[in-house]
Amino acid sequence: MATITPTDVFHQWTACAVAGDIAGWTSCTTEDLVYTHSNGLFETRDEVLAAFDAGRRYTAIETDGVDERVYEGAAIVTGIAHISAALASGDTVQLDVRFTTTLVTVAGNWRVAAWQSVPLPA
């Protein structure tokens, strides 16, 4: 049986976001997840889940140049993401960002603990 890597969990997490699989998305995260958007908006896991309930939808997340560094009990996954999203307001956004995602082990499984992104230069 293959070992599930932090990058595998990261990709599962983004795939769940696009599929609208909230239970799957939640199972990939820690309870104390912190999510910092490229515009500086900071949200907890509960706030992200509330935004999903209110209508936020990720319609595409494509990644490039993904790199993984693993440490004892923690991992950092970095790369570039091209994100399409529909906001609860009805607006749509297209984002090109550089991201850093921190994953930690919880009960022997990798979980996303933090996401932070910044816009790519124009």
Q: Please, could you describe this protein's structure?
A:
- With 122 residues, the protein is α+β, with helices and mostly antiparallel strands.
- It has one domain: Roll (Nuclear Transport Factor 2, Chain: A), CATH 3.10.450.50.
- It is 25% helix and 53% strand.
- It has three helices and six strands.
- The protein has helices at 6-19, 22-27, 45-54, and strands spanning 29-36, 42-44, 57-71, 74-86, 92-106, 109-119.
- Strands 2-1-6-5-4-3 form a six-stranded mixed β-sheet.
Could you tell me the radius of gyration in angstroms? 14 Å
Low-confidence stretches: none
In sequence order, what are the helices and strands, one letter per element? HHEEHEEEE
Strand content: over 45%
Total strands = 6
Q: Helix- and strand-based class?
A: alpha+beta
Strand order of the largest sheet: 2-1-6-5-4-3
Q: How far apart are the termini?
A: 43 Å
The major pleated sheet works out as: 6 strands, mixed
Do you know the CATH architecture?
Roll
Short summary:
By secondary structure, the chain is α+β, with helices and mostly antiparallel strands.
